[in-house]
């Protein structure tokens, strides 16, 4: 099966939900024209890292910006993944959702590794679940930005059957080589398709490096952005996952008796 992917590598206006939504509306229309099955957006695309206002900038699942994404997904007949500030009672989470091409929410994932370097742990709650889900194209999972540094999460997903792992991010330019290396490693070691969308531009603390990527299970980069805003598109053959896993059966060869 072929999966046609669009990566919405955008700049964000800090705290301006309306401006960011207007950008995403345009992207969704462009992604439909490009024939995409899936549009991936950056981490916290609605607001950026204005965490001291996380409570007022957040929405309950299914409301506000989450609802807007559902409408866009259905209107443009494509699945959409991105993360937003999600409010549940008094707690706020950095939550990635997948809305399918009918606008139905198939999955949500609350970021499990909060990054102290960006004070995320002071303002947000950490997710307590890391589950795979069934998308139209097969078993999939989400991770968010800093999660990329924790291979155990990705291995858990792969062992649970994930063939596609989708990663919204706001990854700074200062560590963009880590981003490139870790994305490739996560794809190769798990023999999975990795789809990662990073923002560009800057906020009060960081410049962000783009380099959004679609990587196949061999580690081949099928498309990579530069550090400018734009919609990147590419198609991946999902049969390559089973082919890679059969050819080099690293899951079978793991030494679970040792580690
Ligand atoms: O791990 C990193 O270097 C960047 C992570 C990050 O910026 C984030 O999780 O928002």
TrEMBL record:
InterPro entries noted in UniProt: C-N_Hydrolase, C-N_Hydrolase_sf, UPF0012_CS
Span of domain CN hydrolase: 3-238
SUPFAM superfamilies assigned: Carbon-nitrogen hydrolase
Domain of life: Bacteria
Signal peptide: none
Family statement drawn from the similarity comment of this UniProt entry: Belongs to the carbon-nitrogen hydrolase superfamily. NIT1/NIT2 family.
Name of the protein described by the UniProt record: CN hydrolase domain-containing protein
């Amino acid at each position: 099966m072929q999966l046609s992917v669009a990566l919405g590598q955008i700049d964000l206006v800090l705290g301006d939900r309306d401006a960011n939504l207007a950008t995403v509306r345009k992207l969704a229309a462009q992604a439909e024209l490009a024939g995409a099955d899936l549009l991936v957006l950056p981490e916290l695309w609605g607001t950026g890292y204005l965490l001291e206002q996380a409570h007022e900038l957040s929405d309950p699942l299914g409301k506000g910006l989450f609802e807007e994404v559902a409408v866009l997904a259905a209107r443009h007949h494509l699945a959409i993944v991105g993360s937003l500030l999600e409010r549940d009672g008094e707690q706020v989470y950095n939550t990635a959702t997948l809305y399918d091409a009918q606008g139905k929410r198939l999955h949500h994932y609350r970021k499990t590794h909060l990054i102290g370097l960006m004070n995320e742990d002071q303002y947000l709650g950490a997710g307590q679940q890391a589950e795979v889900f069934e998308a139209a194209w097969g078993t999939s999972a989400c991770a968010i930005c800093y999660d990329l540094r924790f291979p155990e999460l990705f291995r858990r997903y792969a062992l649970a059957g994930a063939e596609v792992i989708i990663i919204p991010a706001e990854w700074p330019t200062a560590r963009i080589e880590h981003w490139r290396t870790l994305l490739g490693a996560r794809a190769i070691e798990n023999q999975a398709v990795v789809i990662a969308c990073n923002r560009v531009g800057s906020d009060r603390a960081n410049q962000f490096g783009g380099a959004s990527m679609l990587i196949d299970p061999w580690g081949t980069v099928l498309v990579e952005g530069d550090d400018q805003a734009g919609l990147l598109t590419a198609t991946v053959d999902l049969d390559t996952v089973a082919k890679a896993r059969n050819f080099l059966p690293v899951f079978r060869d793991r030494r679970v008796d040792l580690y």
